[in-house]
Amino acid sequence: MSGVACVVLAAGKGTRMRSAVPKVLHPLAGRPMVEHVLANARSLSPERTVLVIGPELEAAGFGPDGAAGGVRCVVQAEPLGTAHAVAQARPLLEDFDGDVIVVYADTPLVRAETLARLVEARRDGEAAAAVLGFRPEDPAEYGRLILASDGTLARIVEHAEAGADERAVTLCNAGTMAIDGRRLFPLLDAIGNENAKGEYYLTDLPAVVAAAGGVCAVAEALAEEVMGINDRAQLAAAERVIQDRLRRAAMEGGATLIDPATVWLSADTRLGADVTIGPNVAIGPGVAVDDGAEIRPFSHLEGVRVRRNAVIGPFARLRPGSDIGEGARVGNFVEVKNSAVEQDAKINHLSYVGDAGVGAGANIGAGTITCNYDGYRKSRTEIGEGAFIGSNTALVAPVTVGPGAVVGAGSVITEDVEADAIAVARGEQRQREGAAARRRSRLRPDGTRD
Ligand code: UD1
Ligand code: CA
Q: Which ligand 1 atom is the nearest neighbour of the CA of 13?
């Protein structure tokens, strides 16, 4: 969209979260709330984007120099209100004569189309500003939009200031505004802080416009799209909304979700065509599943690429840094971390494979453990192509098992195994003929077996 700039407000205290973590850094679908807002803004291709942060976000690494993707940060040292927060962007926007869209970082579900619609509403009405309104089931503490008889916006009244008849108004303020850039800063200058909270409310802007004989327009959005997140219950409600969107998008993209409501995805999850995901699967950040792969129930994945036609789970855990090759199998109660499992390799049962390479077609027996940590350092295990690791083997890293080698069940392997060799490292089996029968007759006078 041409001629727009975005200002994202993220400097509030977020006290209602009761958290040591700044509110807008709480994740939704594995991505901090503020990043969702910035991503939505980015998809409008604004000419400028300004992120207003407080000291907490600055301490978390956001800052004038650290801002990513062409976003400029400004610091609001004290949270004196939403109008005061927008005013901090003045040095970066004073000369901007397009539409300035203000979005709150705690309202992460607003879609770019809705922002574009808001800008259209302002332009069509030649209004000083357009405000996004919505009708929530529970108007709670939202500001109320008070319309004039001609349908334009007369003023916004904050919940804290509203009388009973104003609170009865069901049209609420979503907090998102598009403002004519040429008029923005003079309007902000006219906003005072004589109100219940002693803050400079951005929501006073429509009344200032009306007092000067101007008009403000209203565009409406769906409640689920503009819900603000102030506390943990609202965070959970927003998570449900975003998960539903991700699930729908995954299915539209050609993945089968057998029970969508129980599959948890991340904002960056990439699923290929004909991927099947069973019930109760959780997918954390950084996961890509290629075409035809299957994730069976109760598996947990993060930071992993699962290649074509691989089968994962049920009950598998794939941890960051892993790459599961085409057609490979990772079965029940198997944990894989920071490991490359190559094409058609099998780790079917009850194993821990960490900091390892598993060659193509290798077979890892039940109960195999890579002992990758000695209490001080992590070390690697390399298992060659086509190797066979017998059940209940401990591979004490650093160690290499060559291609085609066989390791006997129950081994503790501390030295490298050559290609095509058989290695067995366990107590040797001894047999004493008749010893069990002798023992029985000693302990049971009649000598029977049962
Ligand atoms: C605000 C609106 C309210 C609206 C609701 C929608 C105002 C005064 N009120 O209320 O009408 O219905 O959002 O969700 O705008 N922030 C700053 N600096 C500040 C204060 C806030 O950057 O000094 C940021 C916060 O980080 C947050 C956003 O602005 O992202 C909104 O602030 P918040 O305190 O959550 O406002 P609400 O009480 O929810
Ligand atoms: Ca809020």
A: 26
